[in-house]
Write a structure and sequence with these properties.
The complex is a heterodimer. Chain A is an alpha/beta fold. Helices cover 32% and strands 16% of the residues of chain A. The chains are: A alpha/beta, B alpha/beta.
């Protein structure tokens, strides 16, 4: 039988199918951060259970960590306790933790690929919905709840229901400055935030294979924003070249064995998917969200819609609510929307490539009056790489703040946040009400678009610069 | 885990779609290391005014919905972040049943780990339930998981589908980890084979 990549990974990880119980799936890698794990460790302790495979876990601190003045104690006592609890839990269980002072520290979904901890064909979980990022390597990677974090620690398995499969086929050439982020937003705009519910997406086509590994990570990262459990890209020469030589990548004889296995993973020609969606890369303009859901998105040359532009009554109401919250008037040109704060960073767009393109757009410019712009590298390694390339100077000379790594303004848990009514151009992944601070107004964009908005003080079509 | 039993309870109406987990429990409350006490912060930014008083405009603050155990909400409930703090907050507030046309996958899974039954209705069924509550705020519905039956005074109830394994676990209040650990021998066998097939993962 012809199989999709998802079916191959599923079949090879099936531990048991006991009648009357959900299929039990083996987990190869378990990623952790401080927010969704403490209650799982507590559960283990109460039940006197142990972590089954400590070597399968890589942990970091990212959500609550300050991105400046890191030498000072964390001011928020509750966040401080959460950080300390993470350190204690990892020490007690013998887990590999990149704490705030560690040179490997950063956002979990940035750090893990940097060290080659995820390989093609693995099942990877984390108490974080953006675990989907690692599908860029052809691994089945998905977010889980804290009860499941505890389950995986105790058993190295998860009871799972098999997902449906969705193929998103994107061929053609992206226009200059259109990026993986724009593809991800365009997909969410097309199928909606519930469009992928119950599915695992496989992204295929020339526009996908042309993406760098960083771009594939950005794309898979936002599979969850389209409702999908996970996103997958078939491994290829770019994947192997990225992994080779990294700390946790196989080496020597094991490299050859692993490579042979990885090459068997792509979906068989003629394998069938439950759902197929196609997009033409050439049609994807730089995207900007205008509302409070990632599906409320449009191209830079477009206008903010009015409720009556939608046929569906629920979407009309959602549009009216979003315009009210966002303080926008229907039919305003996207390029006429002013911005107050620019954020480049997050597990979506906090990689070296993101800072390179943003620096290219920023070079020789100044941040507009009354605009604050912050660049938050996804990890200390990204930060150092950028500094080695002189990118930090470009940002600083233009009036940007150059910070230490963390999730920062993506979800605003660490004190970096918007104030009421403040409007951001953000390279993060969610524009929900209050996501970046109560009353804050978020527009999701690519790093190049964010950088261009910093200079102009409003959104601009970077293709015209 | 608490066993789910048949009950007759007030059904609260939340006529909004795509309610995300950031709204259910905003991020400023995710710093705790315990899993209890999140009910006070459920829907915090909608539920309270800036001075901390109740927002009278917010639907769950209506006196008629006080003590509700059933939440009837619009499409794609629980989208966004994987935070289990969302079902913890919902359960801690007092809800044990949600009815919507669809749920985000991770949220749906998380409900079953916390004695919450997420019922899936058709669009028409959901619309009838919403109309019935709107016309008679404070109305009580009966949820019978054993027979997979929702019953309402105006006759808008229906039989609902639920995965038999999840149903059984909810009814018995079974802990998933305990169930899985009964298969430790199978996990050991799988792992022994895994070490041979993928030796590079065990270096």
């Amino acid at each position: 039988m012809k199989k999709t990549m998802y079916e191959k990974i599923w079949d090879s990880h099936l531990v048991a199918e006991v009648p009357g119980q959900a299929p039990l799936l083996y987990v190869d890698r378990h990623l952790m951060h401080e927010v969704t794990s403490p209650q799982a460790f507590e559960g283990l302790r109460l039940a006197r259970r142990k972590v089954r495979n400590p070597h399968s876990i890589l942990a970091t601190m990212d959500h609550c960590v300050p991105t400046k003045d890191r030498d000072l104690p964390i001011a928020d006592p509750i966040a401080k306790k959460q950080i300390e609890t993470m350190a204690d839990n990892c020490e007690e269980n013998g887990l590999n933790l990149y704490d705030m002072k560690n040179p490997n520290n950063g956002v979990i979904h940035i750090v893990v690929p940097e060290h080659g901890f995820v390989h093609p064909g693995m099942v990877v979980v984390c108490g974080d919905s953006h675990t989907a990022t690692h599908g860029a390597f052809g691994a089945l990677a998905f977010g889980i709840g804290t009860s499941e974090v505890e389950h995986v620690m105790a058993t190295q398995t998860l009871p799972q229901q098999k997902s449906k499969t969705m193929l998103i086929q994107i061929d053609g050439e992206l226009s200059k400055y259109a990026s993986a982020k724009d593809i991800a937003l365009a997909i969410t705009g097309k199928i909606g935030t519930a469009g992928g519910n119950g599915h695992v997406i496989e992204y295929a086509g020339s526009a996908i294979t042309n993406l760098s590994m960083e771009g594939r990570m950005t794309l898979c990262n936002m599979a969850i924003e389209a409702g999908a459990r996970a996103g997958l890209v078939a491994p290829d020469e770019k994947t192997y070249a990225y992994l080779k030589g990294r700390e946790f990548a196989p080496s020597g004889e094991n490299w050859d064995k692993a490579l042979a296995y990885w090459k068997s993973l792509p979906s068989d020609a003629g394998a069938t998917f439950d759902t197929v969606v196609t997009l033409n890369a050439a049609d994807i303009e730089p995207q900007v969200t205008w509302g409070t859901s990632p599906e409320q998105v449009t191209g830079i040359t477009s206008i903010v819609p009015a409720p009556e532009d939608f046929d569906d009554a629920i979407k009309q109401q959602a549009c009216a609510n979003a315009l009210d919250y966002m303080g926008l008037t229907a039919h305003t040109k996207i390029t006429d929307i002013p911005v107050d704060l620019i954020f480049i960073g997050s597990c979506t767009n906090g990689r070296i490539e993101d800072f390179r393109i943003a620096a290219e757009v920023t070079q020789g410019t100044k941040v507009a009056d009354k605009v604050t712009a912050i660049a938050v590298p996804g990890s200390y390694h990204v930060k150092k790489q950028a500094e080695d390339e002189g990118l930090d100077k470009i940002f600083i000379d233009a009036g940007w703040e150059w910070r230490d790594p963390g999730c920062s303004m993506c979800l605003a848990m660490n004190g970096d946040e918007l104030t009421v009514g403040q409007r951001s151009a953000s390279t993060s992944n969610r524009n929900f009400e209050g996501r970046q601070g109560k009353g804050g107004r978020t527009h999701l964009v690519s790093p190049a678009m964010a950088a261009a908005a910093a200079t102009a003080g409003h959104f601009v079509d970077i293709r015209n610069l | 885990m608490q066993a789910y039993t048949k009950h007759e309870s007030i059904a609260a109406l939340m006529n909004r779609s795509n309610v995300d987990t950031d709204q259910i429990i905003p991020k400023q409350f995710l710093k705790k290391v315990e899993r209890t006490g999140f009910g006070k912060q459920l829907f915090h930014d909608w539920r309270f005014n800036d001075d901390g008083s109740d927002n009278a405009e917010f639907e769950l603050n209506k006196p008629a919905f006080k003590g509700a155990k059933i939440l009837v909400a619009g499409d794609n409930f629980g989208c966004g972040s994987s935070r289990e703090h969302a079902p913890w907050a919902i359960a801690d507030y007092g809800f044990n049943t949600i009815t919507s046309t669809s749920y985000a996958d991770i949220f749906y899974n998380n409900c079953f780990k916390n004695s919450i039954l997420p019922i899936i209705a058709t669009k028409a069924q959901l619309a009838s339930l919403m109309d019935e509550i709107a016309a008679n705020e404070g109305v009580k519905f009966i949820v019978d998981l054993e027979n997979q039956q929702l019953t309402t005074p105006a006759g808008n109830g229906f039989k609902f589908d639920v995965d038999p394994v999840r149903k059984d676990n909810l009814l018995k209040g079974l802990d998933d980890i305990g169930l899985t650990l009964q298969h430790t021998d199978l996990i050991d066998q799988y792992e022994a084979k895994h070490k041979q097939t993928y030796p590079w993962l065990w270096v």
